Amino acid sequence: MNAQVSAEAITAAAAAAVTEYVPMADLYLSTLNPRQDADAEGIALLAESLIACGLVQNLGGLRDEADRVAIVFGGRRLRALQIAVETRPDLAMVPGRIAPDAMTAQAWASAENTARQDLNVVDEIRAYGAMAESGAAVANIAQAFAVTEAHVYRRLALANLPEPVLDALHEGAITLGIASCFTIANDEELALAVLGRVKGSSYYSEYQVKSMLQPEGMTSDDRRVRFVGLDAYREAGGAVKRDLFGKEEYIEDMGLMMRLFDAKLEAAAEALRAGGWKWVEVYAETYVSYNVTDPMIRLRKEGGELSGAEAEEYDSLAELAEDDAMDEAQAARFEELTQKQAERYTPEQIAESGGWVYVSHQGALQTSLGYVRKEDAATAAEAGVIAAPEGGFVEAAPAEKSAYSVKLVEDMKAVRLAAAQTALLCKPGLVLDLLAFALSPEAGAYHSIMDIRTGAPTIVPSQDEGLALDERLTQRATTRCIDHAEAFAAFRAKGQKHRNAALTEAVARTLNYACGG
């Protein structure tokens, strides 16, 4: 009976309830609210998320006789808002849904733990990203939103996607799986072109989208090419091929381009090391993953201080700037004093921390600095850069150094691979089995057994009404194969007929339109 009344009340509320902005002082926790008790630490973390992201889920309540609003759902958010408003006064006017009657308020309160709408996945991604950007650790974000750390990591992996991709995901024009594919894109212009192609279409698989995002050719719009520069590439002896019917230029020697890219990025890292940073590493992706940064201690920049006389001078110059009455010398002095107050890492912080250099989607050099590694935490504490825990630091056991150099290990791998390839030369049947398996969905996604890359030519027109495709032409691997040896043995056990069918289907799927003339 109660469940039925609640359902009816919630349905009626959807039409009758209105959203109003209510002053914080007029809000209080209703006795109907099921969350009368709350963990203080969790509330503090939630307050941090509100400071970073704002309120993304409204509260709900019922007006009383004194025209105040008793909050029946959103009790944790109300408590956190009362803390966050001290830092962000703009949060003092709180949006809330006002129940039209007591029965609706009761229904909302009863449904608080079971019928609360989850955050939209894009709101979640942006909220987690904003908190992480402000310095919150993954564990703190997980606690603030009552989710697992693994869930936070999955969302943070998408936080640096281009905004149009996140917008398309928010609109429901692409799935979360398709959105995840865009994390591999090196060329933002290409990424947006692919997005325009796949938006609103249910045909494209994740495999196809990834193939479109990483074509074999490297164009002049690729972030790595922009970073190195075509002139530097040509000076190093690299050739460029121009598309006669388009504007694209294609890099013919991708190996040379990658060597130039690596060398320029390493030079940027070395310049920072020479500037005093304790360690600086090169990062190949377009942003430094939170999986990498989260285990470390992030330092906050410190602002410079002006002397009493400088502060008075700054205030006087600021008044002149506001009246647009500064001469050139005064403007230069104002800029000097402004820069002196700017936040920056201190020499002590630089000496005990480090970070990464990487290249953005646009081809610009980026840095992510101010991280103290766990093995450096004790010395950083001694230098006064971070606070030491009460129990002191636990020394990590040093990693056992390999008896072999990296170069020797790579050489041994090369010799082993050469032996395997030589053995295959005498086993044509096994080679055909291996080729068919490698090209089939049974080999799984995200792993390449052979150094062969197949495309996915478009076979669906923009108007696909009435088109009936053979499902074998759209088969794609969507999950990772855990044990390739076991999977290959199972594949061979199905016999030669299955092998031939798998090979036929795989080759048919790669046929290009141009091959027919």
Automatic annotation (TrEMBL):
GO cellular component: chromosome
Residue ranges annotated for the ParB-like N-terminal domain, each copy included: 20-114
Entry-linked SUPFAM superfamilies: KorB DNA-binding domain-like, ParB/Sulfiredoxin
Coiled coil: none
GO terms of biological process kind: chromosome segregation
Pfam families: HTH_ParB (PF17762), ParB_N (PF02195)
The protein's name in its UniProt record: ParB-like N-terminal domain-containing protein
